[in-house]
Amino acid sequence: MKRISLLGASGSIGTQTLDIIRLHPEQFQLTAFSVGRNIEFAAKVIAEFGPDLVSVQRREDLDRLRPFLAHTKAVYGENGLLEVALHPDSSLLVNAVVGSVGLVPTLGAIEAGKTIAIANKETLVTAGHLVTEAARRHGVDLLPVDSEHSAIFQALNGEDEKRISRLILTASGGSFRDQTRADLESVTLEDALKHPNWSMGSKITIDSATMMNKGLEVIEAHWLFGLPYNQIDVVLHKESIIHSMVEFVDRSVMAQLGTPDMRVPIQYALTYPDRLPLPDAKQLQLWEIGTLHFQQMDLERFRCLRFAYEAGRMGGSLPTVMNAANEAAVEAFLQRKISFLQIEELIEQAMYHHTVCPNPGLEEIREIDAAARRYVMGQI
Ligand SMILES: NC(=O)C1=CN([C@@H]2O[C@H](COP(=O)(O)OP(=O)(O)OC[C@H]3O[C@@H](n4cnc5c(N)ncnc54)[C@H](OP(=O)(O)O)[C@@H]3O)[C@@H](O)[C@H]2O)C=CC1
Ligand SMILES: CC(=O)[C@@H](O)[C@H](O)COP(=O)(O)O
Ligand SMILES: [Mn+2]
């Protein structure tokens, strides 16, 4: 029996993780979980799974949750996320929270020797050097949940990194893949939230539309698989059937395919190195799809992808700034305070304005993250 702590249970990845736990009650048990503001959902999870611990984002929400607690202890805020991650009975942390708020609980769980199933890419982007170094020191596995990284992990199948020549991430192109830059001047929030292939939380859906999602994923791949940026490529593949590829030194390319369904990589991270059936996942029938399309990425059309390569290559605190500026700008777009194209303008300004700190520690990361958010808010 694997006992699981789950951060971000009420989100898109969180609810699908609960589906997997529900599907295999003999394999998995939910020990502790967090939500943000969705208290009704937390009450349902407590009634169904009877976990030991729940964390909510805000202290004032504890009163709303109290009538549903029974034997479940309730905590709140960033310390609450850490307490969930550190629950002594859990051996696995599924980090499905959105944003760099996931960093401290991830580092805490690694230091406590727990396996990490990581969906929360912002944590790896903002402080990949700290997370991977802590995982190495404590002998902890970082198991990818993100579909592209799970695809690479599966295609690698334990091969030594010396035999890899290139990682090839696929990008759907997001909501505006067929629009020109001129078209982007007048797109709306509603348009941006319509992802062609995946149903996901609002922040990542906007990231897909700006192509920042792929930028974050390039940096995530660098940290998870230890390859330099000149060995990480992106190809536009509008069907999202090939989830990513690995090219080996002999030019052989391994790809992982499947119909778009996040429960597949989530379940693989939970069962690794084993596999379990997922009977109601739609079988891939290539004849139904007929044709798969591929296109070279245009880094002027998708400027956020260029920013991410620049931030990743420069390293130090620049990825922290890019990530925090993106989080703040996307939040402002979701609140209709800025236009779609202002997201990338604000990120570029924040990166330009920052003096890079070469090897930031946790406290510096937190300060630089907060400063980048303040900078973006000050420009709006
Ligand atoms: N959705 C997907 O298919 C994929 C997602 N990812 C990554 O997984 C992560 C989660 O994405 P997704 O599930 O789509 O996001 P959602 O927005 O659907 O869910 C986010 C979760 O985090 C909680 N949350 C948000 N802010 C805070 C906070 N400050 N403190 C505590 N909890 C908070 C939310 O709580 P509440 O709703 O209760 O307020 C919710 O449970 C992201 O990093 C994303 O990039 C990666 C690959 C695919
Ligand atoms: C499902 C998943 O992993 C998302 O990150 C997805 O990849 C988004 O698609 P694009 O960023 O390629 O549009
Ligand atoms: Mn992805």
Automatic annotation (TrEMBL):
EC assignment: 1.1.1.267
UniProt-annotated binding residues for Mn(2+): D146, E148, E217
Binding residues annotated for 1-deoxy-D-xylulose 5-phosphate, in chain numbering: K121, S147, E148, S172, H195, S208, N213, K214, E217
Organism encoding this protein: Ectobacillus ponti
Coiled coil residues, start to end: none
MF-aspect GO terms: 1-deoxy-D-xylulose-5-phosphate reductoisomerase activity; manganese ion binding; NADPH binding
GO biological process: isopentenyl diphosphate biosynthetic process, methylerythritol 4-phosphate pathway involved in terpenoid biosynthetic process
Reactions listed under catalytic activity: 2-C-methyl-D-erythritol 4-phosphate + NADP(+) = 1-deoxy-D-xylulose 5-phosphate + NADPH + H(+)
Ranges where the DXP reductoisomerase C-terminal domain occurs: 257-375
1-deoxy-D-xylulose 5-phosphate reductoisomerase C-terminal domain boundaries: 142-225
Pathway: Isoprenoid biosynthesis; isopentenyl diphosphate biosynthesis via DXP pathway; isopentenyl diphosphate from 1-deoxy-D-xylulose 5-phosphate: step 1/6
Family: Belongs to the DXR family.
The protein, known as: 1-deoxy-D-xylulose 5-phosphate reductoisomerase
Function: Catalyzes the NADPH-dependent rearrangement and reduction of 1-deoxy-D-xylulose-5-phosphate (DXP) to 2-C-methyl-D-erythritol 4-phosphate (MEP).
Co-factor(s): Mg(2+); Mn(2+)
Domain of life, source organism: Bacteria
